[in-house]
UniProtKB/TrEMBL annotation:
Residues 17-294 form the Aspartate/glutamate/uridylate kinase domain. In the N-terminal section; belongs to the aspartokinase family. Its cofactor is a metal cation. This is Bifunctional aspartokinase/homoserine dehydrogenase.
Amino acid sequence: MTLEVSTAQIEAVAEQVQVHKFGGSSLADAYCYRRVARIVTEYAGASDLVVVSAAGDTTNRILAIIDAKEEGDETDDFGMAEVLLKQLEKYQHGLITDLLSGDILTSVMEASKQDFSRWWNWLAGGEEIKNRPELLSYGELWSARLLAALLQQQGIRADYIDARSFLVADDAPEPLIRVEISREGLLNRIAPHAGTRFIVTGFICSDPNGRSLILGRNGSDYSATLVGSLIDSKQVTIWKDVAGVYSADPRKVERVVSLPILDWREAEELARLGSPVLHPRTFQPVNRERMVIAVRSSLKVENQQTRIGQYEDTEPTGKVLTALADVVLFRVDLRDAKLIEAFEELDLTPLISWNEIAQHQAYYAYHQNHQDYMTAWLEQVDSKNNASQLTGYAMLALVGNRIQETEQFGVFKQEVSEQALRRLALTPDNNAVVAILEQKLDNRLLNRIHSQLFNHRRSLGVLVVGRGNIGSAWLSLYRRLRERINEQMDVRIIGILNSTQMWLDYNGLDLTDWQDQFERLARPYEMSQLIPELPNAPYDELVMLDLTDAIAVAQLYPSFFANGLHIISANKRAGASNESQYSEIRTIQQEYQREWYYNTTVGAGLPLNYALNDLRNSGDTIRSISGIFSGTMSWLFENFNSEVNFSDLVRDAKQRGLTEPDPREDLSCQDIIRKLLILAREIGLRLDWKDIDVDSLLPEHLAEIPLDEFMQRLPEIDEGMQDLYADAQKTGKVPRLLASFAVQDDDTVRARVGIEYIPEGDMLANLIPGENIFVIYTDWYHEMPLVISGPGAGKEVTAGGVQSDLNQLLSRLAKAK
Ligand code: ASP
Ligand code: MG
């Protein structure tokens, strides 16, 4: 080919023409196309080149059709391939009719129909389309043609170029570009047309005989820099769904920062370590002294962009935390010198490699994506089976030039050393520190490490389970205190759940009108399926508020802890579960180092746990606690006398929300036993249900019937209660329902719940209805007890107590680092 363009034209091209690239997801539907057209008119110069990928998931669709056809070849059933091809045709034609009209519509549609008739012919066994690369090429061809047509329709001078018409390469696993001939071809096509925007197909090129070749999956970034370097352009802009390169993957990590600049070596290292931002080959053709790659958001054009260029002299800092969930280790016998040499010379460099001399082993870590390739390669070079593959590993890496000199290096080392670290190493150029972990990665871990590295405010995601009285009261309290709560950490409510429905949003719920929003947005869910998902919520820490009374929730505490959540409970069921369950919960809690607060389970908002912990931490020993632990019982008995029916009091109390939903929980003393167990366990005693001596107020024949019926038959308890009252009065006393436990001299615990007769003048006989009282004897308080009393129930005080637990959790977590 002879050069038809003048030197002056070539210089003008190099000076003026820049390259832009849009990926498939930027062209997924008509709306996206219009946005891209707008960017091309407003942010690209009049002679710029625009490289495009296939629209949406077209490449994947094409691959699926090819697969289905191949299967059809074996089974003689092309049904699937037909269906998929019809869908693709419909998608492409839909784009065309949505975007174009008039003559332009007619001509593009005509061309497209011709293409598809070739496809149908191919499916039927015809030979018009020869090979897989040719089939794949259509994706890019269609998007380039359509975007050019759309621009033309908008009155802009535009045309499209099939890259196979100029980009020539020799076939190889990664096609080898013939630079000179490709440059001439491109210049000949564009130089004479200053003032025309050309849309160029990404991903594809051709061999010297005109056969289609592809540049590898996601190869359009590479196409863009290739085209840019052919014309010696100063800038290639890669337009993405995200604004530039961030300090971590913004889909997984919260509060990432976008990086204004990145040095070539950092960008390259990042791509090599599997960061989804740019394909590793993108950097190959670049003239690093001249070109800059700008990575920019097509959704938010105004956002900051990242400029990748020659910036190696800037102060070294850790820039990007990057992660790979699935890493394979290839373990090779060091004594097989030939095989080791083959590994060392392999083009595909490992993430890191190292030797363990004592065991005669070398390790090469690769991303799982490369496993098939490596396996096939090993089949050729490892005839003696001296290499084995180990899976179940993950990688975390921190990228930045001269990483060892940065402040973040130490932080990173510290953080990964707390994980199941298999190996930590610097990459040879000191552009990254890489950690291979023998464990799964989750987003919570990424978020934690990211915020340690980049010193962000730490975040806490709150899952609220239970939206009854307490849940509602706490949510309104939270709304009122939100600013103050957020001072220590960035706290967000990520979900509100009842037993069947959840309203979940990892970005944080907007709590205005939350009741209505819940009605509208909540969806059915399974708690057991939700929990393993939660570690992906992008927060440093997560807490579950159990504001239910549900055994089902309490049973899942081990699973919540094991998935990284802290727990705050108003629910007594876990703290008062039987000894074996309780110790399982505690074991798992400790193993996973989670916090568990449950101050409101006894005495609601009363600062009982603070007093007990404080005494114990200061060296005192608790000897006994007795009193009226139940606000319900307190209310019932303080209002009870010979003139009123006990059953009327129970009804009244239920209506006022003072009883458990089923008042039998109170009457059978279950609720009090639970509190007693929780208190005893809180001070380190071992106590189980069977160790407690209980006098229930609930006659056995009423225990099992449905709640409605029970409420009707409630008066059946009145006679017995009146007898009790009369009996107490004989000695000038009144009945009260007391709970107590005491550590005996032999260190066993005596615990009892039941009616006792109290002299009428005694403090216990003169509480305000609903008041709780805890009488505490200790080594120090042995002549006169420490007494804590006050309201022991009610949604406001309970919500306040939950908030107090949350405050405690926040200060604990904020201190943690
Ligand atoms: N369309 C091609 C692919 O999906 C190239 C690209 O998107 O960069 O792999
Ligand atoms: Mg793509």
